[in-house]
Write a structure and sequence with these properties.
Blueprint: E1 5-9, H1 15-27, E2 31-33, H2 49-59, E3 65-69, H3 70-75, H4 88-95, H5 97-104, E4 109-116, H6 132-152, H7 157-165, H8 169-194, E5 200-205, H9 213-228, E6 234-238, H10 243-252, E7 257-263, H11 280-290, E8 293-295, E9 304-309, H12 332-344, E10 349-353, H13 362-368, E11 378-380, H14 385-398, H15 405-433, H16 446-469, E12 474-478, E13 482-483, E14 491-492, E15 495-499
Parallel strand pairs: 1-2, 1-3, 3-4, 4-5, 5-6, 7-8, 7-9, 9-10, 10-11
Antiparallel strand pairs: 12-15, 13-14
Helix pairs in contact: 1-10, 1-15, 4-8, 6-7, 6-9, 8-9, 10-14, 11-14, 15-16
Length: 506
């Protein structure tokens, strides 16, 4: 039987959204095809939606699976979808290609995902419309006030009126109009799900909070899902960049599998998160379901162990944080001891480190140094808790399908290199060296930043390789690290792992 053929239209070109799904597919023997680079978005520059449509038409006839980001297909990318002024009619006409592809190849399974427009926590003028750099605080206040009024009625009227008056009317109308267009696109996707064009749909919330316009949009979409009766094939939950991995895992291993979740603290399920609207335990359940998994009743029946390092009570931005993260509400040495026991018992273990956003926890990484890290089924600690969880779940679910040990080691080492070594260590060193530059645009300092990456990162990656991966019949080739975009937030650590050439004996 031939290997599954998967077409992937990602949200953008960062390594976790583009490279990781390809690596996950390759380790199972699947062929994951991606569009030509010129058709994909580059930071806030939209991709070529016409070229994407042509690529899909050319490849869909002999494909088994399509994993597609609706924002890339219809509006040029996840970030461009928050910035471009394309009318709804144009976006819907691009969405129609999915029904066309399904008609040409009825066996094609289409797994789609859309991102409910976020209300950004930072005043980023590049990932949002330019005016957000000046009016972000006021727009966030309006977002919260609007949703509080929608839920609690006239008691919140004065706060809503004050928030509305604080934003220029034309800016508010444009910002809200962009949200309404994207929400209409997601409503149309629900119709495609109801009509059988889509096999599965994820509508995720990026950087969300308990109150806000994203939560308001979520309720409207959920109400429509109630009307259509599509919840058996729909997931609505906090996430974004990791969804290609989750849907790939669902597509390549369609059966539901039980998962034993091991938290770093006995109360870890109740830990609060910075960029999600629910506690850690409920977020875990949502990400398991999106990938086609469920909570196991015992570790013995589980297909894999999802080891989740939660904060003591709540995530924090800076390490160490003894008030919220590193508290007596968890016990990291016992957590790592349990992982060692799981590995010795031959269980597949995938680690999701969500104690802090945007990088691994230093203390956990120190403790894990005594584990055989190359034996892990997966590891993730990047960006939001949702990004981390979805990636770790995908690693774990696909673990029994691994046919290419080198590809699995490559995917695992790439996450360690990015999430631990770059995000957790090197990024702060580069920031200090550059004098704490703007988080939104490095400008002329990009070259200096990348020179520092080339100095600081490869020796760290090589050291992890020598300690944990060497001697397993594999070979590592390291490329030159650089930045995905003109900011420190996302690094690129090019590396390739292959089966080592047998040494010639005398």
């Amino acid at each position: 039987m031939r290997a599954p053929r998967v077409l992937l239209v990602p949200p953008d070109t960062r390594p976790p959204t583009l490279d990781l799904p390809v690596q996950l597919g390759r380790m199972t023997g699947a062929e994951v095809r991606v569009p030509p680079a010129a058709a994909l978005p580059e930071f806030f520059t939209p991709g070529d939606t016409g070229a994407l449509a042509a690529w899909l038409r050319a490849g869909a006839a002999d494909a088994d699976v399509l994993v597609v980001c609706l924002e890339t297909l219809c509006l040029g990318g996840m970030i461009p979808a928050r910035r471009v002024s394309d009318p709804l009619a144009g976006a819907l006409s691009r969405l129609a290609i999915l029904a066309e592809l399904k008609a040409v190849n009825p066996a094609l399974r289409i797994y789609a995902f859309g991102v409910i427009v976020r209300v950004a926590h930072d005043n980023d003028p590049h990932e949002e419309k330019a005016y957000y750099g000046e009016w972000g605080r006021e727009l966030r206040a309006y977002s919260t006030a609007f949703d509080r009024h929608a839920r609690h009625g006239e008691a919140e009227r004065a706060a809503l009126d004050a928030a509305r008056a604080a934003v220029p009317a034309d800016i508010l109308a444009d910002w809200v109009g962009t949200r309404e267009r994207n929400r209409a696109l997601h409503l149309a996707a629900l119709d495609l799900l109801s009509g059988g064009v889509l096999s599965n749909l994820c509508l995720t919330l990026d950087d969300t909070t308990p109150y806000g316009l994203a939560a308001f949009d979520r309720r409207l979409l959920e109400a429509r899902a109630d009307e259509l009766g599509v919840w058996d094939r729909l997931d609505v939950y906090p996430g974004a960049d990791e969804v290609p991995c989750a849907l790939l895992a669902r597509a390549l291993r369609p059966e539901e599998v039980p998962v034993w979740v091991r938290f770093s603290g006995l109360g870890g399920a109740g830990a609060e998160l910075l960029y999600e609207d629910r506690p850690a335990g409920e977020l875990v359940r949502a990400h398991l379901r999106a990938a086609g998994c469920r909570l196991a009743d015992s570790v013995q029946e589980a297909a894999f162990v999802l080891a989740v390092n939660t904060p003591g009570t709540r995530q924090a931005h800076r390490q160490p944080d003894f008030a919220a993260v590193d508290t007596p509400h968890r016990h990291l040495p016992a957590f790592v001891d349990a992982l060692r026991t799981d590995l010795r018992a031959g269980r597949a273990v995938s680690v999701a480190d969500i104690a802090y956003p945007n990088g691994a926890e230093a203390r956990l990484w120190t403790l894990m140094g005594g584990l055989p890290l190359a034996d892990l089924a997966g590891f993730s600690a990047w960006n939001t808790a949702g990004n981390t969880l979805g990636s770790a779940v995908a690693f774990g679910k696909l673990a029994p399908l691994v046919t290419d040990r080198a590809a699995q080691a490559e995917a695992l080492l790439a996450r360690i290199a990015d999430d631990v070594l770059y995000q957790g260590e090197v990024r702060s060193l580069v920031r200090e060296r550059l004098g704490s530059p703007s988080p939104f645009d490095l400008g002329e300092q990009r070259a200096e930043a990348e020179a520092a990456l080339r100095e600081l990162l490869p020796p760290r990656v090589q050291a992890v390789w020598e300690r944990h991966f060497a001697g397993r019949g594999l070979a590592l080739a390291l490329g030159e690290p650089h930045l995905a975009w003109p900011r420190l937030f996302t690094g690129v650590v090019p590396l390739t792992v292959t089966a080592a050439e047998p040494s010639s004996g005398a």
